[in-house]
Amino acid sequence: MPLDNPKNLGDCAVALGWETTEGCAASTYQNYLQAEVKLARNQMVANPQGTHGSMWQRQDGRREAAYKPTAEVTCYGTKQNMAHFLASLVGRTIAQGANVSEAGDAGNFVSGWNIRGLRPRFNMESANRIYCMISDEVPASGYAQVSLYKESAMTTLLARASGANSTTLSLIPQNSYGVSGQVNLGAPSANDSNVILTINTLEFLWRNQPDDTFSLRVWSGCAQHTLTGCVVSEVRFTSSEGAPELKMGATIQGKVWAETSGSPSVANIDYTTFVHGDVTVVDEPSGANATKYPRSLELRVSHPTESFVGNAYYPQKHIRKGWREIGGALAMPYTDEVETLFRAGQNVSHRDLRMTYVYGGASFQANIYGVKWSDEIPGIGRDELDDYAGTFEAYYDGSASAAVVFKLDLA
């Protein structure tokens, strides 16, 4: 039966699982969280004329022509929760350089890792490790083969590369796990299956169209709701001195709902929430940093997506538009320096904003490029004000697709 429109499910158990085929329910779920969820069918109805047949469901005397199901999920900003939503919103992950730690390579056979498409708990073990096997003399003398695996047992092959010694090899995706990249090959003298790669930090970069979809499963009471073919079209972050835990909201667009009965089945929920941290504004091109501690912070990052505009029985692909929308607000203790900072940002387009949350040595960083500020302070005696509040916005097009938007520590 179709869902009510909308349906507020309150505090629920939620599972997220990447799909191997777009729109087909995930066979396994990798990430679990506790969240408030609002589901909406978003029906598009038509008058009865010309809409005959069993495929058309009735709605208030009219018939449903299509629907665009969505879910609003609100949860705490933990590493596990954020990684999945950010990967779907931005579209591409990369781990490279100092963000990848290598152990077990006694002969220094491989180095200079650049790995794309990693997603915690989907193609990584324990959220931040993968394993490497080096096969010497494959396919011939003077050559070697490098294989990446998800787990220490080396049963799930993620990517593979072959080439001559002392060259840079390209990692080719295997088994639909979406992992690719490059690695520098030395001169192996023997096989080596002891190399462990720890991904310390994932970077999230814009991609014009979504690579993969995921399934969202929500348990509320005795009901089990499953939304397939999902992509994230917006994430929102809020925190303040009074409520320091980072809260995250996500708008999810899907294709097909299924509502059945079922009991919650969850595991490994992450309750380690990032907390209200520092905000750094970078003044380009000089690169001079000014670190400020805000009273409150809001950030919204949108990747506008058209979804499911046809008949419900024939879903089409998600189509993302060619721009991204960024917005937010800051309230900071009032100083002359802060006022200058905001006012300078009103008149130039090259001022960037870097927001960093820190907890237990790990950090979450959002990089906003080309910020424009607007002043919300009324024109009164500013010297008497305790806080300086400002809103900002930014706009990306395809030319900014290579910019690193988020950085998330996994270790």
Rounded to an integer in angstroms, the radius of gyration calculated over CA atoms is 24 Å
Q: Strand content of the residues, in percent?
A: over 45%
Structural class: mainly beta
Q: Tell me how many strands there are.
A: 31
What about the largest sheet?
15 strands, antiparallel
Q: Which descriptor suits the 3D outline? A: globular
Question: In terms of topology, how is this protein built?
Answer:
Blueprint: E1 7-18, E2 31-40, E3 43-46, E4 58-59, E5 62-67, E6 70-76, H1 79-90, E7 91-96, E8 100-103, E9 110-116, E10 129-136, E11 143-149, E12 157-164, E13 168-173, E14 180-185, E15 192-199, E16 201-206, E17 214-220, E18 223-240, E19 247-253, E20 256-261, E21 278-283, E22 288-292, E23 296-302, E24 305-306, E25 319-320, E26 324-333, H2 336-347, E27 351-359, E28 362-368, E29 372-375, E30 387-396, E31 404-409
Antiparallel strand pairs: 1-2, 1-17, 2-6, 3-5, 4-5, 6-19, 7-9, 7-16, 8-15, 9-14, 10-11, 10-15, 11-12, 12-13, 13-14, 16-31, 17-18, 18-19, 18-20, 18-23, 21-22, 21-27, 23-26, 24-25, 26-30, 27-28, 28-31, 29-30
Please describe the structure with a list of short key phrases separated by commas or semicolons.
411 residues; mainly beta; 15-stranded antiparallel β-sheet; 6-stranded antiparallel beta barrel; 2 helices; 6% helix; 52% strand; globular
